[in-house]
Amino acid sequence: MKKKIMLLLAAFFILSSNCVYAQQYHVLENRDVKILFEAPLATAAKGVADIYPQVRAALESTFGWDLNFRPSVLLITDRKHFKNMALSPLIVAYAVPNSNLIVIDCTKIARHPYSIENTLKHELCHLLLHYHIPGGALPRWLDEGVCQWVSDWIGDIIMDQKRSYLNKAVLRGSFISLRSLHNGFPPGKEHLLLAYEESKSFVAYILSEFGKEGILSVLDHMKKGENVEDAFFNALSTPLVDLEIQWRYSIRKKTTWFTLLSYYLYEILFGLMALISIYAFIKIMLKKRAYMAEDPEDHLLS
Prior knowledge:
Elements: H1 2-15, E1 26-29, E2 34-37, H2 42-63, E3 72-76, H3 79-86, E4 93-96, E5 101-105, H4 106-111, H5 116-132, H6 140-150, H7 165-172, H8 189-223, H9 228-236, H10 240-254, H11 257-263, H12 265-294, H13 296-301
Parallel strand pairs: 2-3, 3-5
Antiparallel strand pairs: 1-2, 4-5
């Protein structure tokens, strides 16, 4: 709740014409989108304006829903200011559905293999889902998982592809239940990253088992006002709790010991190097003692 209030306040101050900070932004707008940007991002702003129609068309085609509103897109180069707004150093972009606002940290996007197009599609998907699904019915995990799917699995945060917190959760048996991720994600780094991975993995599982039509059917039921449990059951003829159990089982089945060992590869290598160093030290000490024991008097005379 606190995070939602902070995001709404940030959106209010950014979009308010009386805001001193907002007056520092340039504006590029047309009938489809309004883009606010800092001076160095003029080229990026034009790029967003150019690709917006195709991004919107792709989302409307995927969901079969109209995007009947004009969003605002804020492009930022001030990392410190963005972190204050986003409330997490891991986030590179976020959406504020109540204000139809998208905020993108261009400093992070530029340094990572994130295309502005996929980032825009991801955040616009958040706005589209909340526009058509009423109230707080849309669970955070489903919201994030679906948006990752339509944007080629790009999320709000930059994930370390070499380290999977989901694999770690399998090893520990410490999944976060989907029910506890309904209203939001936990703030701590490890739990936050795990929440994002779980959201992605569960939606990917639904897609693999029921296809694109399955997940779209769930969303259509929710658009009609059904809660998430009823929507999953009516769309897929399986209770959500059972699907979660089956999904966890499928992850455990696919996660081999090699996968788990690879997660701890750096720790294992570090430990082996430490053992080798200790072994070498002991060997040198024993050799020195043996050398000294050969003829102590000779060593004293020398």
